[in-house]
Structure formats: structure tokens, C-alpha cells
Amino acid sequence: MRTDRFEAFTDAVLAIVLTLLVLEIKLPSHDGTLAALVGIVPQFMAYVVTFVFIATIWVNHHFLFSRVTIINNQILWINILALFWTSLLPATTAWLGANIMLPVPAVLYSFNVLMFNITMLILRNMVVNATQTTRHAALNRHERLSLIINTFTLIIAFWLPPFSFIGLAIDLIIWISLQFFQQGQRE
To answer: How far is CA 169 from CA 34, 49, 86, 129, in A?
Structure first.
């Protein structure tokens, strides 16, 4: 498969996921007070963290496939699996945002992020092996660091549910910093 069709499909799915993510925020319809707005702060913060996560997914996906010319079946199916985990984010984000202090929504959200992380580690390794490139060596190392951070986040979420967003935010700060420092290498 050519990469243009592959990337267009991925872009479309991510755009739909971002749209679904914002639709999960329910503004108070019968209460126009500031107190009512403050009541949805956890949901909004969940939206912001997950939006940045999905934006980081898109940037990294674009960079990963920027010099790939042919997509094989294994890469195609692992990418679809990554999109599957991404498509669950609006639901797990909404549940955790509405129940920020409960462990089950936090663990499910953290599990969702961790499964995406594992899938991306596999995808990145497949692309590196298929293209025989060393361009992504630093990103492979960071993908493994993300795996450690997200595993600890999942474990901590059992006892401290809001840590689901804190752990992901720490991971995102590292990813975004890496992207800014490697700006010249991405073009």
C-alpha cells in the first residue's frame, strides 16, 4: 500500500477521535453559574490532557512515516490496532473525567494509554526494521521510557486515581520536549 492513503486514513480516524473527545464534555444546561462550570473542571482537564496526547500521537505518527514509501500488511494491521486503542480514548477519558477519584475509571484509562504505548512500540520497531533506518533510535528509547512511565501510572492509579492524568502529563512533557529539541532532524 502507498503511504498517502495509509496516512490519510490515520489522519481521518484521529480527527474523528478528537471530535468525539470534545463531544463528551457536557456543559451544565440548566445552571448558568460559575459554580456549575467549576463542577466540570475535571472533565475539561481530562479533555485537555487527552487532546494533547492525541496531538502528540499525530505528530509522532507523521514523523514516523515521513520517509516510508511502502506499507506492508504487518505495519497496516498494527497501525489499525493503534487506532483502535486511540478510538477508545474519548470513552475512557469521559469516564475518568466524570469520576476522577475512583480507581476503576482511572485504571481503565491508564490501561488504554498503556496498550496504545505497547502498540506504538511494536509499530515503531516494525517501521525501523522494514526501512532499515536509524532515524528513530532516540524515539525507540523514549517509547520504552513511556512504557515504564505508563506502567507505573497504571499501578499508582489503583491507589491514587488522579495520577492517571499526572503520569500521562509527565510523559507528554518529555515527548513534546523531545520533539522541540529534534525539530531540525524531522524535516
So the answer is: 27, 7, 17, 30
CA distances from residue 59 to 32, 44, 63, 155, 180 in whole angstroms, order as listed: 37, 22, 6, 28, 11
CA 74 to chain centre: 21
Nearest to residue 137, comparing CAs of 64, 53, 71, 70? Answer: 64
Closest CA to 179 of 47, 80, 52, 83: 52
The band of 118, judged by pLDDT with boundaries at 50, 70 and 90, is very high
Per-residue pLDDT tens over the stretch 51-68: 999 999 999 899 888 878
The one-letter amino acid code at 145 reads L
**What percent of the chain stands above pLDDT 70?**
92
